[in-house]
Amino acid sequence: MANFKPGSASNPTSEVELTISCRNLLDCDVFSKSDPMCVTYLKNFEVLDWQEISRTETISNTLNPNFIKKVQVLYRFEEQQNLKFEVYDIDSSDPNLERQDFLGYCETTLGQIVSAGKLTLPLLGLPGNKGLLIVVAEELEVSRDEVLLQFSGRNLDRKDWFGKSDPFLELYKVGEDGDYRVVHRTEVIKWTLNPNWKPFVIPVRSLCGGDMERSIKVLCYDWNRSGNHSFIGEFYVTLNELSRGPGPENVYSCINPQKQRKASYKNSGEIVLMHYELRKVYSFLDYILGGMQLNCTIAIDFTDPGFLH
């Protein structure tokens, strides 16, 4: 019993992914809207001070951001893990948060978020009502696979009065609560109705939770500098359907539900799968179990540390 260390037994854990969004944020910009970013901090019984664990991307000109970058946390069932979320209006590339406009903060625990599934919290720290922060928790599957996807558009609707469109895509994963949450946003391609977006790689567990039959919603927008992007159309697909690869089966009509009432309406263009590749991502342990051998060369320098050589 002399070697027994209290608390040395492994505690049950689970990897959790947090999706963050905000509503009705304070507008700090004079000629446009705020450019929000959210910073996440963690504190548990082992750490006395808040530790920054993640920063989302900055989304321009919006008071209702849906952040793509997720926060991944190891949920320890028997510990209280405190979380703090701070929202800032980003006006420069300076990483020093003191030089950005503070929009508010909120605190909770990881256990409360996991228990609720979806938690809505008021932002504090400034006088008056400064908006809401919404955080959704979902347990991640063990799968480490990634998928490479590439899409193009054909004959998309023209949305700009004096030009064509500036299209981009957003991919949404359906959660366990039935709500769709954005997981990827492509780049904007200016002045075209036939865009070819760059290939991108996304973890399978982030795209569909490892479920090949889980619904994925794809939305197409025309980008506007104001942040009020014009909706072009949408379609639904599964990773199992995408796995068939490029071809007629993976050409999707981009549908605007508001226009479907017209008898003459067919679609608002087509979205075409150009490339699909499922990639296995192996851990270091996988390589060792697979028979990989490591050869090490070790050298020891016995010379006097004060001697220049």
TrEMBL record:
UniProt keywords, alphabetically: Calcium, Cell junction, Cell membrane, Cytoplasm, Membrane, Metal-binding, Nucleus, Phosphoprotein, Repeat
Residue ranges of domain C2 in the record: 1-123, 129-252
Domain of life: Eukaryota
An example Gene Ontology molecular-function term: calcium-dependent phospholipid binding
GO cellular component: cytoplasm; focal adhesion; nucleus; plasma membrane
SMART domains referenced in this protein's UniProt entry, alphabetically: C2 (SM00239)
Localization in the cell: Cell junction, Focal adhesion; Cell membrane; Cytoplasm; Nucleus
Keyword NAD appears in the UniProt entry: no
Biological role stated in the UniProt entry: Calcium-dependent phospholipid-binding protein that plays a role in ERBB2-mediated tumor cell migration in response to growth factor heregulin stimulation.
Quaternary state and interactors: Monomer. Interacts with ERBB2 (preferentially with the tyrosine phosphorylated form); this interaction occurs at the cell membrane and is increased in a growth factor heregulin-dependent manner. Interacts with SHC1; this interaction may mediate the binding of CPNE3 with ERBB2. Interacts with RACK1.
Protein name per Swiss-Prot or TrEMBL: Copine-3
